[in-house]
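Problem: given the chain below (337 residues), write out its structure.
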Amino acid sequence: MAEKSKIDQRTGLLNGFAAYGMWGLVPLFWPLLKPAGAMEILAHRMVWSLVIVIATLLVMRRWAWAGELLRRPRRLGLVTIAAAVITVNWGVYIWAVNSGHVVEASLGYFINPLVTIAMGVLILKERLRPVQWAAVGVGFAAVVVLTVGYGQPPWISLCLAFSFATYGLVKKKVSLGGIESLAAETAVQFVPALVYLLWLSSHGSTFTAHGSGHAALLAATGVVTALPLVCFGAAAIRVPLSTLGLLQYLAPVFQFLLGILYFHEAMPPERWAGFALVWIALVLLTWDALRTAHRTARALRAGLETSGAVVATGTVGATRGADDVVAGSDQPVEARP
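Solution.
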């Protein structure tokens, strides 16, 4: 039994690394789709993602959620909002990468946890611990430093961070699984995207104008969107949320390194200073989350032992509950760039 648990954890970790690794390396893919513009790429991504997730759901025979969703208008409305917000996120990200702003795009996902916490305070009236306040303050200072360095606010980073934080907030209310959620959202996106592509076909579409290879790459946007999500789903059921919460930083790290080492984007001193402040804020946030999780797990176990009700399921539940603290409020993270 213990051996099976170890194998499951190893499989989960590999899938987690694969998911966040693919999300981190995706800036290498979008430039391959040129001369298609960001809007055309985005529309193809919406259309082909739906094709892929429908095929996946057919294989998995998971359709019960669809009827329930259609019978709940409020939930369907939230899915529509989530689809609109992730459309903005995807579009800005694709444009940023293909316009030479990979580093600034990576910053958006570095500061996303800080923005999520700030939104939790402002919208959900959550109370922060002192270290969390310090992390948010340092993150705000980073934005100020970067604003001075850029000569304007880092709009791309802020747009990506706020759109993804809003997406996470809405997704929490919807409570759908990763594949199911992507299917519902891309179903909302499908008709507008298809109408745009049909219009574009007579106004300069690149889909049929640049050979079968280019058309295949545009169709592959569906695989690029769905495959990391499948890996994430496999990881989420096998490893603690605390581990996923730490693994999520792999994606912006890879994007940042690609921006500097592969795309050779400039990093003047003030930009380094801004990023350093963001990383300090994330270290504070992660340390506080880990400390709180360990304290919560200890307290729960102590309470169970005192009451004489310690059983295996209880201990697992306590640990899993503590893991939620570490994962942070920016879960779920299924629809990365």
